[in-house]
Each structure stands twice: as structure tokens, then as C-alpha cells.
Design brief:
Elements lengths: L4 H4 L6 E2 L5 H11 L3 E6 L2 E10 H9 L8 H4 L1 E2 L4 E3 L4 H11 L3 E5 L5 E6 H5 L2 H10 L6
Parallel strand pairs: 1-2, 5-6
Antiparallel strand pairs: 2-3, 3-4, 6-7
InterPro entries: CBS_dom (IPR000644), CBS_dom_sf (IPR046342), Diverse_CBS-Domain (IPR051257)
Protein name: Putative signal transduction protein with CBS domains
Keywords: CBS domain
């Protein structure tokens, strides 16, 4: 039984446009109980252009930036980490480990937004843990 990234990213992703503020992002995260928002093109909500995470917001506050700074200044734009919906779940786990992130964006093969996988999604289901344990190949570090 293989599970693809798209199977795990079931819930619709919570999105924000680049002109919104860090404060608005924090409210959206709190209201939706998520740790990552996908920043999308204002004219195309299926086109991801970046991400903003809880860590980004904390870094912004710690750096004394005002909460009115826009998310495109506080988040990661364009070079965000993603997997494709048809890739195996192990691809998401490997990228999370490689880049030390707790969330990963899931795209379809057209580059359109499918969802988000969190580390909680991966550790929340025994079936996924079994797949990760079986398929994991140790890396030389």
C-alpha cells in the first residue's frame, strides 16, 4: 500500500494574498489551527507564490518589525518547498527532514495548489508511520 502526498493533504489549504499583514496572517493561523499559510497570487487563488509559517511570524516580531509588515516581506517567496500530489508520502518526509521544515506545500503537476502536509499529518496516522518506517533509507550524515 503506497500513499501519495495528495492522499494526506485532504483539507483545503488556508491561503493569504501577499498584500495582507503579518497580524492578519497570525489571526488566520490561530482561527484555523494551522502553522503555515500559502501565499497565493491575488488574481489566481490556485497559484502559490510563497508561504508564511509560525516561525516566520515569530522571526518578524523578534526582529522588531511592525505587525503591519506584509506577508510577502515576512514569508518565503517563490523558492518554497513543495512536493507533487502524486509523489509518495516518503518524498514529503524526506524534504521536511532535509530542509528542517514542519510543513510542505502540495502541488498538482500543473503547479496548482492542492494542499499542505504538516509533520502532524505524517505522525498522526499509524499507516503513514508504517510506510515511512518500511521505506526509509538511512542517509549518510
Amino acid at each position: 500500500m503506497t500513499m501519495n502526498c495528495g492522499d494526506i493533504a485532504k483539507k483545503p489549504p488556508i491561503t493569504i494574498t501577499p498584500d495582507k499583514t503579518v497580524e492578519e496572517a497570525a489571526v488566520l493561523m490561530a482561527d484555523n489551527h494551522v502553522g503555515l499559510l500559502v501565499i497565493v497570487d491575488r488574481n489566481n487563488p490556485k497559484k502559490p507564490i510563497g508561504v508564511i509559517s509560525e516561525r516566520d511570524i515569530i522571526r518578524t516580531i523578534a526582529g522588531k518589525a511592525p505587525l503591519t509588515v506584509t506577508v510577502d516581506k515576512a514569508g518565503t517567496m517563490h523558492n518554497f518547498i513543495y512536493v507533487y500530489a502524486d509523489e509518495p508520502v516518503t518524498a514529503a518526509a524526506r524534504k521536511m527532514k532535509q530542509y528542517n521544515v514542519r510543513h510542505i506545500v502540495v502541488l498538482d503537476r500543473n503547479g496548482e495548489l492542492h494542499g499542505v502536509i504538516s509533520i502532524r499529518d505524517l505522525i498522526g496516522e499509524k499507516q503513514i508511520l508504517d510506510i515511512l518506517a518500511r521505506d526509509w533509507t538511512p542517509t549518510k550524515e
